[in-house]
Amino acid sequence: MSTNQLWTIDKIKKIINKPFFDLLFIAQNIHRKNFIANKIQISTLMSIKTGLCPEDCKYCAQSARNNTGLKNQQLVKLEQVINAAKKAKKSGATRFCMGAAWRNPNDRDMPLLEQMIKNVKDIGLETCMTLGMLSEQQANRLAKAGLDFYNHNLDTSPEFYHNITTTHSYQDRLNSLDIVRKANIKICSGGILGLGETIDDRINLLLQLANLPKQPESIPINMLVKIKGTPLANNNNIDPFEFIRIVATTRIIMPKSYIRLAAGREYMNEQTQALCFIAGANSIFYGEKLLTTSNPSCKRDRLLFNKLNIVTESNLINTVSEQQSFNDKYYDASI
Ligand code: SAM
Ligand code: DTB
Ligand code: SF4
Prior knowledge:
The protein has 335 residues and is an alpha/beta fold. The radius of gyration is 19 Å and the shape is globular. The chain is built from eleven helices and ten strands. Helix 7 links the parallel strand 6 and strand 7 (218-223). Strands 1, 2, 3, 4, 5, 6, 7, 8, 9 and 10 form a ten-stranded parallel sheet that branches. The protein has helices at residues 9-16, 20-34, 78-91, 110-122, 136-145, 170-182, 199-210, 240-253, 270-278, 298-308, 320-330, and strands spanning 39-49, 95-100, 126-130, 149-151, 186-188, 191-193, 218-223, 258-261, 283-285, 311-312. The longest helix is centred in the first third of the chain and has 15 residues, at 20-34. Bound molecules: S-adenosylmethionine, 6-(5-methyl-2-OXO-imidazolidin-4-yl)-hexanoic acid and iron/sulfur cluster. 6-(5-methyl-2-OXO-imidazolidin-4-yl)-hexanoic acid is lined by residues 45, 61, 97, 99, 130, 151, 153, 190, 220, 222, 225, 262-263, 290-293.
């Protein structure tokens, strides 16, 4: 997952502007060289501390500056996390992501966060946390407790970032990613489309991610969920084909990373989601709720998986040869 080549804006532009079907064909080929086809990873989210965030991210329901009528909640108890994780495991998720609306965690909360990680791992799930900026010492403590992934999105281009958040800088985000990497925790970092950014901003976001010293293992691509009471509530919708082009380009320039269709799936039809999977997306958030907003129901997602013959990572297909027998049964490539 290290970057053999340094990506440039021009190289990425050449890819993203290819004829749509060529772009999808290349992305799907690269996808099949690096991952088992027809298979996706599913993660379930839990908000462990909700609202009253001191940061001013303009898209976010949880910023104290946005009047969104959200019900705030202090850091939850360990038992609530264990119950939610057990439910997620039962529903077929393989990763449990815990999110807190903080600028950064407070040291006094570290022991409870460590307990959360240990207990969720004992249930047999991978762990992910997203808690804002981390000190080196905090990252090392989370790593020692067994944290597998840390989510910290770059969200958009360095040029556009100050239009979205002013209480921390792009460099702060990059510094936190560096701290996470040095603590040996896998990186989950992506962005949001629909903030009002240009296509060049999107390309620049991908450039930042692809040129990190080591590419993120996991890349969530969020479509803005327009939340009443936030400054972005009336933003224009993003064109689904532009969204799919970003997914395909991400797959081509970061071939070994999981790409997650993150927030916004509720507003995508099945066909758009299917095209995102062809373009190389191979992970989703699964479960009725994201952090504060809703997500498609498990029933609706399972129906979609069935229609597309998609299996999830908790199914017993773990090798390419097992995948081939599955393909022989369900997928006929002959004409
Ligand atoms: N406070 C932490 C932070 O900022 O990293 C963690 C929580 S924050 C909610 C995690 C990510 O969720 C954001 O970086 C953003 O990409 C995504 N997100 C938040 N609100 C969103 C919205 N309304 N629509 C789409 N994505 C959103
Ligand atoms: C990510 O990239 N998206 C998730 C997760 N990482 C933490 C959060 C989406 C939040 C959507 C809006 C909400 O539910 O508040
Ligand atoms: Fe706070 Fe994170 Fe929301 Fe920004 S995105 S306001 S840091 S919870």
